[in-house]
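Please, structure for the following, as tokens.
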Amino acid sequence: MAIVDRSDECFKRFQKDFKKGLFSEGDGAVIKAWIREMEQFGPEYIVSNPHWRDHDLEREWAGYRASCFSLEGRIIYKITDDNNIEICLIERITPNHDYTRKDNL
């Protein structure tokens, strides 16, 4: 079981990209399913479920993981342990497999 949160930058970027049409309603439904599964079953389930093709990230994203919600779409997140509560912080949701770490919105 985990608590899912998102960074402010992630929320702003997702809203902007959604308005641009970079995410579909179907993408939104799959992302909601990922969040629901993360909250109900925890990160071990997400990592072990081949549907999400979850994997560790490297270089500037070291310590983060990515789950696939479409052929190119990724949820970039980090798991922290805050007094034995696993918190999943979604740092970025990208529609195009872009792992470039930029803070520009």
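The chain has a mean pLDDT of 88. The chain has three helices and five strands.
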